[in-house]
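Much of what follows relies on a compact textual record of a protein's fold. A record is reproduced here so that you can trace the correspondence yourselves:
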Amino acid sequence: MLTHNLGYPRIGAQRQLKKACEAYWADKISLEQLQEAGKVLRKDNWLLQRDAGIDLIPCNDFSLYDHVLDMTLALGAVPERYRQLVHTSGIQKSTSISQWQGATKERAWISSQWK
């Protein structure tokens, strides 16, 4: 019998991803350092699942901040009132929108803030 799971928490046992994103937003680390933190977490999570005996390990389920926001950007489905924030590419788009969205009262279109 094969074992499989549908996803694995990406934040890290010590909340490494949250800390890395917050450090990036505060200009304490570079984009490259943020991406490296994500790379290390993906590898560690994959190895942990493999070592636990999971046969079918999920892939492409990682997001640096918000997987729903990532998909929204990938599909070009950003609401008109937020489009001015989409001025760069990739991770910078996602973090730009999520930072702004987290700092305002208007959170209705996406709200998956971690605490």
Observations:
- Residues 66-115 form one domain.
- Residues 103-109 have pLDDT under 50 and may be disordered.
- Residues 31-51 form the longest helix (21 residues).
- The chain has two domains: 9-62, 66-115.
